[in-house]
Amino acid sequence: MRILFAEDEKDLNRIIKRKLRDEGYSVDACHNGEEAMLMLKVAEYDACILDIMMPKMNGLQVLERMRMDGIMTPVLFLTARDSIEDRVTGLDLGANDYLVKPFSMQELMARVRAMLRASHAGGSAVMTIDDLEIDTARRSVRRGGQVIDLSQKEYALLEYLAMNRNIVLSRDQIEEHIWDMDYEGGTNVVDVYISYLRRKIDDGHESKLITTVRGRGYCLKG
């Protein structure tokens, strides 16, 4: 999943960005609201984490502009102020969640997972496709009851395919959601990781879940 993270405190920005990437997310980070809006215009995100008190445009202004522009990406606000008025304003503008500073990284990661589940997987922590089971809370995968060991990128790709099951995703869509703006790899990276997943998910099983739609992209059937 690809996340936009906007926070003007440089140390906190760096720490949270690293933690999100350690958790397997693709992250584009910036330090003010104007940068956040520019990124939202050139890329699609699965979630946004916005500090409220940012320079140039604050988080509330970014959210208001997003919703006016029809960008319905779920938003988690970080705020140092725990007033009811602030929360009401943000929720009325279309925020999905709030987290008051200081907070634990474990709680932030749990809230991000919950927000993504609500928007992509109907709120359930476990996605089941045929005999494939993906636990998004534990980030674990089983097929036919057998644990499958995946790298972070392999898991991120599988989760994205599963959250869009039965939908054909183009290579561009996959690359935009799984790799961030800093990625400078090869042009066939999606095909390479699809082949990795096929070996781990489909090899040895009669039912093949990952399919190629010629000229269009890839799909996880289920």
Please provide a brief summary of the model.
This protein is α/β, with parallel strands linked by helices and 222 residues long.
Describe this structure in words.
Strands 2-1-3-4-5 form a five-stranded parallel sheet, with helices on both faces. Strands 6-7-8-9 form a four-stranded antiparallel sheet, with helices on one face. A two-stranded antiparallel sheet has the order 10-11. Strand 3 (47-51), helix 3 (59-68) and strand 4 form a beta-alpha-beta unit. The chain has helices at 10-22, 33-42, 59-68, 84-93, 105-120, 152-163, 171-178, 189-201, and strands at residues 2-6, 26-30, 47-51, 75-79, 97-100, 126-129, 132-135, 140-143, 146-148, 210-213, 217-220. The chain folds into two domains: 2-120, 3-Layer(aba) Sandwich (Rossmann fold), CATH 3.40.50; 126-220, Winged helix-like DNA-binding domain superfamily/Winged helix DNA-binding domain (Arc Repressor Mutant, subunit A). It is α/β, with parallel strands linked by helices.
